[in-house]
């Protein structure tokens, strides 16, 4: 049976070239700052983001946590979208470990307007309210279907935070997907943020890791926080080598992933019994809603035929394209979805 796993782009496996780079990596103790491969990855990441410094961490969740607790103090508040990964999918780490409150902004697509951010900032002269310390934006936005922040909106929010004396953190887990979709450099997108984290373990194809980038002063604080939460690692050069390989060879794959996602979304949209918002399919994520049967039942029927997706409690199913998914796999996934609905796929 054909097997197509569309649950997440975290499912990518290292290529042979990446495995060779990992096995040949020069190693040292990163807690002492002596792993040359980790140091190379951090320098490269900082260069790509246009930042002073960078810190290699185990996950995007860790990168976001370290970014937020290094920009805000216990008792302060960070503004973020109500459906952000930071708020919904990181175990309440900012509040549990940093004592930081998250203020939610309701949006249609995960893109907060400058006016919304301005309204959410607390007055500094009211002792009843927490102090606003920072704003967090997510680009691309996972739960809104891989939506990309328009540069104009991002720049407006950046200008608002600077004028208000706030820091701006960017959850750029899929930042390179945004860059490819907009046809600009990652540095152009990251320019508005004080700190930015991006994953090498999603579409770029590395097995583990994210990088937090920002000013040296902030990265120094983040490094201390990383140690406190048990995130210091020793001979991590093998993983860093995978990250370096991914940055050199993996970015070009993202356009293919986007094209596959568009083909998938358009095919699903042709089927009776499925609802797809094609305007939100801008990168490698496709959300759709079965209208005739429960999402969990639809996903289970697909799984039995070899196509895996992620069914959410909100009645939607998520498919994510990645380097492990080829054009033929997309056609098979559409065929299976059509079979589950009792109709041929329009492929």
UniProtKB/TrEMBL annotation:
What is its cofactor? pyridoxal 5'-phosphate
Which family does the record claim for this protein? Belongs to the threonine aldolase family.
Entry keyword set:
Aminotransferase, Lyase, Pyridoxal phosphate, Transferase
SUPFAM superfamilies membership: PLP-dependent transferases (SSF53383)
Positions of modified residues (N6-(pyridoxal phosphate)lysine): 202
> What is the protein name stated in its UniProt record?
Aminotransferase class I/II-fold pyridoxal phosphate-dependent enzyme
Q: Origin organism of this chain?
A: Candidatus Nephthysia bennettiae
Q: Which GO biological process entries does UniProt record here?
A: small molecule biosynthetic process
Q: What is the lineage of its organism?
A: Bacteria, Bacillati, Candidatus Dormiibacterota, Candidatus Dormibacteria, Candidatus Dormibacterales
């Amino acid at each position: 049976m054909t097997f197509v796993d569309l649950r997440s782009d975290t499912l990518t496996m290292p290529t042979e070239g990446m495995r060779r780079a990992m096995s040949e990596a020069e190693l040292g103790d990163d807690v002492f700052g002596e792993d040359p491969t980790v140091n190379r990855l951090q320098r490269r990441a900082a260069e790509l983001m246009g930042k002073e410094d960078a810190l290699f961490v185990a996950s995007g969740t860790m990168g976001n946590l370290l970014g937020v607790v290094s920009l805000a103090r216990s008792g302060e508040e960070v503004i973020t979208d109500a459906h952000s990964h930071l708020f919904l999918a990181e175990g309440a780490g900012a509040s549990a470990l940093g004592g930081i409150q998250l203020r939610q902004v309701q949006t249609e697509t995960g893109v907060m307007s400058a006016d919304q951010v301005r309204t959410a900032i607390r007055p500094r002269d009211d002792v009843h309210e927490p102090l606003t310390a920072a704003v967090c934006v997510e680009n691309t936005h996972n739960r809104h279907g891989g939506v990309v922040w328009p540069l104009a909106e991002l720049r407006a929010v950046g200008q608002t935070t600077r004028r208000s004396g706030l820091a701006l953190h960017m959850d750029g887990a899929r930042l390179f997907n945004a860059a490819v979709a907009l046809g600009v450099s990652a540095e152009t997108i990251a320019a508005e943020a004080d700190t930015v984290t991006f994953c090498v373990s999603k579409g770029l194809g590395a097995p583990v890791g994210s990088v937090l980038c920002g000013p040296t002063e902030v990265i120094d604080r983040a490094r201390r926080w990383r140690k406190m939460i048990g995130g210091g690692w020793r001979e991590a050069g093998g993983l860093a080598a995978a990250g370096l390989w991914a940055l050199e060879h993996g970015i070009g794959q993202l356009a293919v992933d986007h094209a596959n996602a568009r083909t998938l979304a358009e095919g699903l949209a042709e089927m009776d019994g499925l609802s797809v918002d094609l305007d939100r399919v801008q990168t490698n994520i496709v959300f759709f809603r079965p209208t005739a049967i429960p999402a969990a039942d639809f996903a289970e029927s697909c799984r039995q035929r070899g196509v895996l997706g992620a069914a959410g409690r909100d009645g939607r199913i998520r498919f994510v394209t990645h380097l492990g998914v080829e054009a033929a796999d997309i056609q098979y996934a559409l065929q299976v979805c059509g079979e589950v609905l009792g109709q041929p796929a329009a492929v």
